[in-house]
Amino acid sequence: MTARWEQDRVERQPIGYVLAASIFRVYEALQLDIAKHLMDLRLTESLAAVLSGLDAAGRPLARRAVAERLRCDPSNVTALVDRLEERGLVDRFADQTDRRVKAIALTPLGIATRARLAAAVADNATFARLTAKQQSELARLLARCSSAVTENETQHPADHREELSHARPAEKPLTSRLDRNHRLTA
After folding, report:
1. Scanning 45, 51, 62, 103, which has its CA 20 to 30 A from the CA of 93?
2. Nearest-CA neighbor of 33 among 125, 115, 98, 137?
3. Percentage helix, strand, coil for the chain under 3-state DSSP, each rounded to 5
4. pLDDT in tens, 38-66
């Protein structure tokens, strides 16, 4: 009965709305699960984002490049890298081609921590309902959507930074403003 109700609900709503509401529900489920893993790893979301933004093989990346990946100011990256370096998860050193540039690389412990976090996300129960073929198809579709976002940001990077620098954080996450029927509320 639940599956039929969901199908009826989907058929009555505009597809864009259904996609957005479903993405918010999946995001919320992932966030709850990831929060547990972050606690186990003693990481904040920001620290995990830095780990995820660095090269998985431990090759160095300039601080500015990390900031661009995270869509934040390089000074924010410095503070986060300080905390990761204290824990032995990253190393920081002068770039070989330009000594003025600070490069950041995962240590072996950082690589292992990043891999544990990635494995925890990949094993999330949210995706367990899907067959391997469905998971592959979802991954392909999401990669296509995310590449469109990346292309748009690359074409208009200053516009996005300007939007982000003036954005005020929401008092509540958007997912908490969905009613019981997964409709956005004001």
Report:
1. 45
2. 125
3. 65, 10, 25
4. 999 999 999 999 999 898 888 888 888 89
H or E, element range at 92 = strand 90-94
Q: Which two tokens stand for residue 75?
A: 């000074």
* 2-129 CATH, one of 1.20.58.410, 1.10.1040.10, 1.10.10.10, 3.20.20.70: 1.10.10.10
The dihedral over CA atoms of 83, 85, 91, 94, expressed in degrees to the nearest 10, equals 60
Identify the DSSP state of 115: H
Domain boundaries, the chain: 2-129, 132-166
DSSP assignment letter at 87 = T
DSSP structure string for 30-81: HHHHHHHHHHHHT--HHHHHHHHHS-TT---EEHHHHHHHHTS-HHHHHHHH
pTM for this entry: 0.65
